[in-house]
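tool_call: predict_structure(chain=1)
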Amino acid sequence: AGPGQAAMYAGLQELGVANGEDLKETLTNCTEPLKAIEQFQTENGVLLPSLQSALPFLDLHGTPRLEFHQSVFDELREKLLERVSAIALEGKVEERYKKLEDLLEKSFSLVKMPSIQPVVMCVMKHLPKVPEKKLKLVMADKDLYKACAVEVKRQIWQDNQALFGDEVSPLLKQYILEKENILFSNDISVLHNFFSPSPKTRRQGEVVQKLTQMIGKNVKLYDMVLQFLRTLFLRTRNVHYCTLRAELLMSLHDLEISEICTVDPCHKFTWCLDACIREKFVDNKRARELQGFLDGVKKGQEQVLGDLSMILCDPFAINTLALSTIRHLQDLVGQDTLPRESPDLLLLLRMLSLGQGAWDMIDSQVFKEPKMEAELITKFLPMLMSFVVDDHTFNVDQKLPSEEKGPIPYPSTIPEAFTKFLQENRIACEIGLYYILHITKQRNKNAFLRLLPALVETFSDLAFSDIFLHLLTGNLTLLGDEFSLEEFCTSLFDGFFLTACSRKENVHRHVLRLLLHLHHKVAPTKLESLQKALEPTKQSGEAVKELYNQLTEKLELRKPSPAEATETPSMELPLPTVPTPASR
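tool_result:
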């Protein structure tokens, strides 16, 4: 018998059941092999008197005994599996588990026998506490560990953080990669962007579903995952880990896993915020609720602020808070009210500030809400409101009959204080960037060009972060026609994008994404100089090179061939170029 055969009979000897080795030995040492085989069959066959006379019938039909025994075996195994599942649900708790434990004790020695393994695994799956010794044996054997149900693995994981970490780690990597792929996607659209999917849709994602299943109702495993997420967030500053923290909790909430939801102090806060993210707006009723949670943090429980700040640092939460802030500011302009007089606005700022301070709070382990700078409320926000007023005034002026003095130009300068705020104050910078996204979405070219210079230097380079650039490129598609104007392109590309391309690979990628989408709108001379400026260097990554090649291919298709260049083309058809010495 080879190693495969040995595995087939693994553990039978310990139970006093004859196996292939025994038959081999019997046949080697006997004088009448046929008699020996018959005796072996009688001793080890199915011991039913009525069967003895029926078996010759099968022989007459040419059915091998193996086939018969195999089908009986399969049938019995199915019945046994059903019975095990039934025992797990019937009678008193102690009694049912006692039965299963006895069964496990009897059958465990056969766990490596492929035909019996499913039964042993099924027994373990239904035991809330598999004996420690058995778990250790499963853990030590790669194949057994792989074969056992997630219910058994949870029991192994909860006392082996490193092993659980090995299982979770590839999922977390996959999650981050999926987020980055969306941010760098070649589809640029103002309608479908990073923030379009609803929270419920996002929670159906593969990674969240797998983690939810791995955790089950096990609080210990849930805490471990949260610890991994905190550690990775600290190590990388990657805010997508904060999104996963919220998504995981809400996925368990969807399944009504009260064992975990009731012990996570962030549950109700996250649930309420989740509803706001779904609406992309914080309404007054929910604002009161959220404020209640923040005000309700008791002395001695300040550590919960670390968790709440991580929930608020989720880009989907920041996006909702920032959009709500911009909407409030516009309302205040209409009501002639100052920011400091609006409690709703102050609450939004408080939550933004808590979210933006998450990394520092978890890093320093000092759990208190960050102080809000008074100037943010008394100077910066009124300044943004004055920009809104400038737009209103300009629009009204345009409609008035023009007199001798000619049309009033759009204000082109920006207060120095605005630029300073964007450089030095994180919250001001975040709100300022969202205001710029807002005017771009409104196709307000004047306001966009006026404020754009302030983006070259911002607090920790926020204007060159992937999320902002992803949203900006999407919104810029609405200003597509402006790309034919030299002045607009110079301000946008030379004045903003190209200032960072060489030092920031991600900016290089976003500009190429934008051009792939809008190249046909850009003036040809400008396009040529941009093509030169954006050429990848030796240090450039694969993604940049790939995008640049795609762009070059598209531009090649647009070039007229030398013969046509002299005539005026009657139709603007993209013709593939024939490489000639002239066009090389």
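agent: Residues 374-399 form the longest helix (26 residues). Proceeding to next step.
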